[in-house]
Design goal:
By secondary structure, this protein is of the alpha/beta class. It contains 15 helices and 12 strands. The protein has 2 domains: 247 residues, 3-Layer(aba) Sandwich (Aspartate Aminotransferase, domain 2), CATH 3.40.640.10; 124 residues, Aspartate Aminotransferase, domain 1 (Alpha-Beta Complex), CATH 3.90.1150.10.
Length: 401
């Protein structure tokens, strides 16, 4: 069986990784060197010259990520925003981008605050409507950029239809697959040309590493320009960051599927709650994107949002009432997080003021539902139960009599 034919669980463990040739260590070491020895001719026969241009840990990670997405090549960056910026920097001057209005706010800030000064024009559209994408196309359009599912409104874009529209104009389709992950969604199979991730989120999965990646379906001239931006501008991840991400990829399919299953249970609980106005999650049949998500995803992801009937004040107060969910920014970690998203994004947010976003971790779904129930006023928080390190309940002296 070829590597490309291996299933994602196998790729997650093995792609890009071999035992260390010097020691036989199953886990590769962290290569902290900034420079590498040349031979007598001045060449670098081992393929590495300077850390900004290449590093063994980064090479292994890029090989793994390309394999997981089914792409030809990957370029890793120090953050998700750096990855997105490299795609825009690779464009020639005075080009046009059609971008989903419901996209990560940091990407929108890049286009509005940074690249507008470079004469890069951007049109923000409702990307869930293919006609809106088509209507925004121009002769100068070089990219269509969509995020599906989106953050934090969980809208779903038909990737195949968006690719068809972009390609008819001679443009490339970029899909931000951070929430979907290659464990649940494979944009290249639906016509995408580039896939972008904030590797900080589900790919990293442990809330301890910052990063981003651009993965190309074909290693063409445009991707080479992205690679050139990576090397020359130098926003590359450290060897340790690459090592941490490589470690995390091994459990990606198991983590994401468990998070997705729990998120669906939490979404169903919230959808039936008297204080909840609306649940935004593509796994619910009443979601506008349900049928599209069901067609192009094998699960619906570990992030959901909901709005409260009482309004903004109630939404802002809710995170402080949870006991298991941690009130913090970001998504994709093994611990569950809760956030009033509009407060985090600031005055230009598109998130409703009564919206709360949840990132589901690996806790038991009943515990998470119970925590939300008590935070929403259904029951008092449960008293903590002391336990021995081995996990047995420690009974009080009164209870033992």
């Amino acid at each position: 069986m070829s590597q490309d034919a291996r299933r994602i669980e196998t790729l997650a463990v093995h792609a890009g990784r071999t035992p260390d040739p010097a020691t036989g260590a199953v886990m590769p070491p962290i290569y902290l060197a900034t420079n590498y020895e040349r031979d007598a001719t001045g060449a670098c026969p081992r393929g590495f010259e300077y850390a900004r241009e290449g590093n063994p840990n980064r090479q292994m990670l890029e090989t793994s990520l390309a394999a997981l997405e089914g792409g030809a090549a990957a370029a890793c960056f120090a953050s998700g925003n750096a990855a997105a910026a490299a795609v825009f920097q690779a464009l020639t001057p005075a080009r046009h981008v059609v971008i989903a209005q419901d996209t990560y706010y940091g990407t929108a800030v890049l286009l509005k605050d940074i690249f507008a000064a470079w004469a890069l024009e951007a049109t923000f559209v409702d990307a869930t409507d293919p006609q809106a994408i088509a209507a925004a196309m121009r002769p100068s359009t070089a990219l269509a950029w969509v995020e599906t599912p989106s953050n934090p409104l969980l809208s779903v874009v038909d990737i195949a239809r968006a690719a068809e529209i972009a390609h008819a104009q001679g443009a490339r389709l970029v899909v931000e697959n951070t929430l979907g992950t290659p464990a649940l969604q494979r944009p290249f199979e639906f016509g995408a040309d580039l896939v972008v991730h904030s590797t900080t989120k589900f790919l990293g999965g442990h809330s301890d590493v910052l990063g981003g990646v651009v993965i190309a379906k074909v290693e063409d001239e445009f991707f080479q320009r992205i690679r050139r931006v990576q090397i020359v501008a130098g926003a590359v991840p450290s060897p340790f960051d690459c090592w941490l991400l490589q470690r995390s990829l091994k459990t990606l399919p198991c983590r994401v599927r468990a998070q997705s299953e729990t998120a669906l249970k939490v979404a169903r609980f919230l959808a039936a709650h008297k204080r909840v106005e609306r649940v935004l999650y593509p796994g619910l049949p009443e979601s506008p994107g349900y049928l599209t998500a069901k067609r192009q995803m094998s699960g619906f992801g570990g992030v959901l949002s909901f709005t409260l009937k009482e309004g903004p004040a109630a939404a802002k107060a809710l995170p402080a009432r949870t006991r298991i969910f941690t009130h913090a920014t970001s998504i994709g970690g093994v611990e569950s997080l809760i956030e009033h998203r509009a407060s985090a994004e600031g005055p230009d947010t598109r998130a409703p003021q009564n919206l709360v976003r949840l990132s589901i971790g690996l806790e038991h779904p009943d515990d998470l539902i119970g925590d939300l129930a008590q935070a929403l006023g259904d029951a008092p928080p449960p008293a903590p139960q002391p336990v021995f390190p081995g996990g047995r309940l420690l009974r009080s002296p009164q209870a033992s009599r």
